[in-house]
């Protein structure tokens, strides 16, 4: 058992097995079974390359052998930061086969996040692309090598320079005798978007993640003819397993990889590859709806658009069928587990105005007040959940887990929701200090701490300002020491620390003091309302 992993209590595990949520299968075995059933079907399309199920399976077997040759063993962690490429899949399945654990970072992450995740997971290897969107990840890898003693190997997709080429893994003959991990073992570590402070890691087991994948593939109606476009970063839970790329492989369909979700790139792929389904965050839904007006590509193959990550406006939801010609499915999910989907056949009032219902009958969702007491249906409260694919604790985060989970094992989501009589949930807001910038989660405390190290800042409060396109944007409210810092100065400071671009500030204002609550804390609600009412200067 991986140290730092919080397992489900034995009686819950037994129930989940008995009820068929956990089926004792590993992710590697899932792919093998598909490759045996339909070896010649196309599993993955990446640019001009297309791999059948047999090819993906065989490649992952060779890569598993290559990874083992490097000394990477069962239970060890490997930090993976790749763009949406076929290599991501052969690497992850190679790691799954030997029981090594991919830690999934986003391509947008920079040195601060990567060093933190590497140290937290004590990753033995770091896998990157050479250059993606003008950024040279080998530079980042050099810093990680210097600062993180656990990292023994850097593997690079493309021009490896002084590092090991990922393509070299392909030269190995598969091991005759592989030892399968246990289905109850941790299969992967996902990144949390929703916690306060430094990013946390979310351990998902083979059993629980396959349950997540299967239930979401069913809810999305995936089948062998599904052609799923990976528009969002594949490392994100939504694009990876809800149902995402893995759910598409589970259903025996074809995964089409898209390097970026711009309409230019994505529409061309939808036409060329006859894509049937994809998933987007709300600002991209808006962008695609606008772009359709002038697009010349034929998007007629698209049957299903999933939208999630942040609240989709009902008016936007209502435009999807008429403009893109496909069914909309709202998805309210979290990397910690719980998934809610609207049904493909549900009435517009549900699909436009709610964020769906839990996908498992044994998702135990309770909506509570500030004292953890259940509120009546229809009342606003915090969503807490436990269930067959919801974690019982973050990885190596004992102190944080005591706050983030209740004593009876419910995850405190921090989401403020309302439950309608039919069980559908409406997400109204958040009790946690995280700004949801169109699906990208900005951890407030982390950014405030970085800003406090700026010499011109005496005090700072980061607030979310409502925004039509993004849902929220960030605004730093600053009390200056003397001369006021400009927005550009603050962002230069954040950049020099090395944070993901989506965490840079959209706006800054300088104030004399902050409004306070009765308890003397900064009243962020009032602060945000004041800023929102101010014209931009
Ligand atoms: C409002 N808020 C939402 C929605 C997530 C599918 C879809 C999204 C994620 C995800 C995911 C929302 N409306 N439709 O993992 O599998 C906010 C909530 C939630 C947090 C989780 C998936 N869908 N949210 O966004 O782990 O606040 O996962 O708790 O990144 O996003 O963030 P994350």
Task: Give a concise summary.
By secondary structure, the protein is of the alpha/beta class. The chain is 33% helix and 26% strand. Residues 32-395 form the AMP-dependent synthetase/ligase domain.
Structural summary, described in words:
The protein is an alpha/beta fold and 537 residues long. Among the domains are: 53-181, Rossmann fold; 434-533, GMP Synthetase, Chain A, domain 3, CATH 3.30.300.30. Helix content is 33%, strand content 26%. It contains 17 helices and 27 strands. Strands 2-1-13-12-14-15-16-17-18 form a 9-stranded mixed β-sheet, sandwiched between helices. Helix 4 links the parallel strand 3 and strand 4 (101-104). Helix 2 (27-37) runs antiparallel to helix 3. It is globular, with a radius of gyration of 23 Å. The mean pLDDT is 96.
Radius of gyration: 23 Å
CATH architecture classification of the domain at 53-181: 3-Layer(aba) Sandwich
Poorly predicted runs of 5 or more residues: none
Provide the residue-averaged pLDDT: 96
Strand order across the biggest sheet? 2-1-13-12-14-15-16-17-18
- Globular, elongated, flat, extended or rod-shaped: what is the shape? globular
Which ligands occur here? ligand J2J
| Spatial gap, N to C terminus | 55 Å
**Quaternary structure state of the chains depicted:** single chain
Counted beta strands: 27
The assigned structural class equals alpha/beta
InterPro entries: AMP-bd_C, AMP-bd_C_sf, AMP-binding_CS, AMP-dep_synth/lig_dom, ATP-dep_AMP-bd_enzyme
Protein name: AMP-binding protein
Organism: Pendulispora rubella
Domain AMP-dependent synthetase/ligase: 32-395
């Amino acid at each position: 058992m991986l140290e730092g992993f919080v397992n489900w209590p034995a009686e819950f595990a037994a129930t989940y097995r008995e009820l068929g949520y956990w089926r004792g299968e590993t992710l590697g075995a899932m792919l093998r079974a598909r490759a045996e059933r339909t070896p010649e079907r196309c599993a993955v399309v990446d640019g001009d390359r297309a791999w059948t199920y047999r090819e993906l399976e065989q490649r992952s077997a060779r890569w598993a052998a290559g990874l083992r040759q490097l000394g990477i063993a069962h239970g060890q962690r490997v930090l993976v930061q790749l763009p949406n490429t076929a290599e991501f899949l052969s690497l992850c399945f190679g790691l799954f086969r030997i029981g090594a654990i991919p830690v999934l970072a986003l391509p947008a992450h920079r040195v601060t996040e990567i060093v933190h995740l590497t140290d937290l997971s004590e990753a033995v290897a770091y896998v990157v692309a050479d250059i993606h969107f003008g950024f040279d990840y080998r530079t980042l890898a050099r810093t990680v090598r210097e600062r993180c003693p656990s990292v023994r190997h850097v593997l690079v997709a493309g021009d490896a320079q002084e590092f090991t080429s990922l393509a070299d893994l392909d030269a190995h003959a598969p091991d005759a005798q592989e030892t399968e991990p246990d289905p109850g073992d941790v299969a992967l570590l996902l990144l949390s978007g929703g916690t306060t402070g430094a990013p946390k890691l979310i351990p998902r087991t083979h059993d629980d993640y396959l349950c997540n994948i299967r239930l979401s593939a069913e809810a999305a109606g995936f089948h062998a003819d599904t052609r799923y476009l990976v528009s969002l970063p594949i490392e994100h839970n939504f694009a990876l397993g809800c149902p995402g790329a893995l759910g598409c492989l589970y259903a025996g369909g074809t995964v089409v990889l898209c390097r970026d979700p711009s309409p230019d790139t994505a529409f061309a792929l939808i036409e060329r590859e006859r894509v049937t389904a994809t998933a987007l965050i709300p600002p991209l839904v808006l962008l695609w709806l606008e772009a359709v007006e002038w697009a010349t590509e034929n998007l007629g193959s698209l049957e299903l658009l999933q939208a999630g990550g942040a609240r989709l406006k009902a008016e936007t939801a209502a435009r999807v069928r008429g403009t893109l010609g496909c069914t909309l499915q709202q998805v309210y999910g979290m990397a910690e587990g719980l998934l809610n989907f609207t049904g493909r056949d549900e009435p517009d009032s549900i699909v436009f105005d709610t964020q769906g219902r839990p996908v498992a009958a044994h998702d135990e969702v309770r909506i509570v007040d500030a004292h953890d007491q259940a509120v009546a249906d229809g009342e606003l409260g915090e969503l807490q959940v436990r269930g067959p694919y919801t974690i019982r604790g973050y990885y190596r985060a004992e102190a944080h887990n005591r706050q983030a989970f209740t004593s009876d094992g419910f995850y405190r989501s921090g989401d403020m929701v309302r439950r309608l009589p039919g069980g559908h949930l409406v997400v109204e807001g958040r009790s946690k200090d995280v700004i949801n910038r169109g699906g990208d989660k900005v951890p407030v405390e982390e950014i405030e701490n970085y800003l406090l190290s700026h010499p011109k800042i005496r005090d700072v409060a980061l607030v979310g300002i409502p925004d039509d396109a993004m849902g929220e944007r960030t605004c730093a409210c600053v009390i200056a020491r003397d001369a006021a810092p400009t927005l550009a100065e603050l962002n230069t400071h954040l950049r020099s620390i090395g944070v993901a671009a989506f965490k840079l500030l959209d706006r800054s204002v300088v104030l004399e003091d902050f409004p306070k609550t009765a308890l003397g804390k900064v009243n962020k609600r009032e602060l945000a309302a004041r800023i929102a009412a101010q014209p931009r200067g």
